[in-house]
Design brief:
The protein has 211 residues and is an alpha/beta fold. Helix content is 46%, strand content 15%. A hairpin with a 6-residue loop joins strand 5 and strand 6. The two termini are 15 Å apart. Bound molecules: BIS(adenosine)-5'-pentaphosphate (AP5). Residues 8, 10-16, 32-33, 36, 53-54, 57-60, 65, 86-87, 89, 93, 120, 124, 133-135, 138-139, 159, 168, 198, 201 line the site of BIS(adenosine)-5'-pentaphosphate.
Length: 211
């Protein structure tokens, strides 16, 4: 049983690393960002509540997030563990998970500078079908504009515009970064330097997990 949280600013590579670690450990990744984008696309009640916050680069209210995560981690495929990608994102979310008895083995914080975030997100392309992330130069798909995993056409996320990236970074520093102290106090925080290739960073994460 391995339960992990991937923390870090937007564009740190949480989704990229979570996809690799998921495959290696055979456990699912739960990305609230992907779940919310699917809800927006399907026009569900949660999607309607979330859309305006996401488009503005603001956080979706904690009450919405806590409900969808609690429901998801109770599913059968989470029995052997899971990776939370992009959640918790506020102290209230972290506290709610803890209060529900959901505890973790490691909280992996990818330490990415703000300037790098801007470069990463402006070149990011994603698969709207399966959520796989690519980058036009750092991590291109085999065929331009097409998802390697499922063959769907790639898109640029609406919140990857310059103004919205700035707002997301501000929200990260104000609301999410304090989680590092929250988990440091519980001796769960593992800092991972964002240096080198995606494989280099993955090597550092795997070394932590094999401790
Ligand atoms: P979410 O989808 O979670 O977005 P985010 O946290 O802003 O993170 P990103 O998905 O942008 O980045 P990432 O770290 O996964 O990086 P990636 O691997 O793609 O959330 C979106 C919105 O939903 C939020 O703004 C909010 O409104 C709402 N939301 C979601 N969860 C919420 C919650 N819990 N509470 C409240 N609201 C919530 O990599 C980025 C790019 O860089 C890619 O192109 C990749 O190929 C490339 N790359 C990755 N690693 C490297 C590397 N080492 N070197 C070079 N390139 C790299």
């Amino acid at each position: 049983m391995m339960k992990l949280i991937f923390l870090g600013p937007p564009g740190a590579g949480k989704g990229t690393q979570a996809a690799i670690v998921s495959k290696k450990l055979g456990i699912p990744t739960i990305s609230t960002g992907d779940m919310l984008r699917a809800a927006v696309k399907e026009g569900t009640e949660v999607g309607k509540q979330a859309k305006s916050f996401m488009d503005a680069g603001k956080l979706v209210p904690d009450s919405v997030i806590i409900g969808i995560v609690a429901e998801r981690v109770a599913k059968e495929d989470c029995a052997k563990g899971y990776i939370l990608d992009g959640v918790p994102r506020t102290i209230a979310q972290a506290q709610a998970l803890e209060d529900a008895g959901i505890l973790f083995d490691h909280v992996i914080s990818i330490e990415t500078a703000d300037e790098v975030v801007t470069q990463r997100l402006s070149g990011r392309r994603v698969c709207p079908q399966c959520g796989a992330p690519y980058h036009v130069t750092n991590n291109p798909p085999k065929a331009e504009g097409i998802c390697d995993a499922c063959g769907h056409e790639l898109i640029q996320r609406k919140d990857d515009s310059a103004d919205t990236i700035a707002s997301r970074l501000e929200v990260y520093h104000a609301e999410t970064e304090p989680l590092k102290e929250f988990y440091q106090k519980r001796d769960l925080l593992r800092l991972v330097a964002d240096e080198g290739s995606i494989e280099d960073i993955n090597g550092r994460i795997m070394a932590i997990l094999e401790m």
